[in-house]
Amino acid sequence: MPSDLTLRVKSLESLLVEKGLVDSAALDAMVDLYEHKIGPRNGARVIAKAWIDPVYRQRLLADPDRAIAELGYTGLQGEHMMVVENTPKVHNLVVCTLCSCYPYPTLGLPPIWYKSAAYRSRAVIDPRGILREFGIEIPDDVEARVWDSTADLRYLVLPERPVGTDGLSEDALAALVTRDSMIGVAKVVPPQKGGSG
Is 24 a catalytic residue? Predict the structure, then answer.
């Protein structure tokens, strides 16, 4: 059963289409654009390339805008990027405490929780607690760093490459990377052995 919010959005969309203010096909094309052409798949390709190409990884960390543009991902709110790398001793988490600054060209549409006041405040006050709620337990000897995106600078997390993925192609690696892992609220997990996952 659809959520109350989903029902309200559908109702509003129907009303706008009925009044001739919005074209349903144009809306579908816009959603498709952000979900499939501008979005997490783009960021996942950036991450996968950084995992298999150490020279690209260095460029990505040193000059993110240029390195991301090399793959063709540019556009409004995709400029002025900073890439922060997760390591065995550092876990990075991205938030925008003032609004919802977000790198659309690499991550697509922001999740609802990213814009919520609860996430925006708790990520700064209690990053380990918020990460636990997302299913990540950060050991005491791992530093949790919180990065606050602004209109002038947006962050992208370079997650740790999962163990056991050495033989995977760039495309197979990109398929493992999620939007949430590039925000820092999830880890990238290797595919299930013997499964479809």
Answer: no
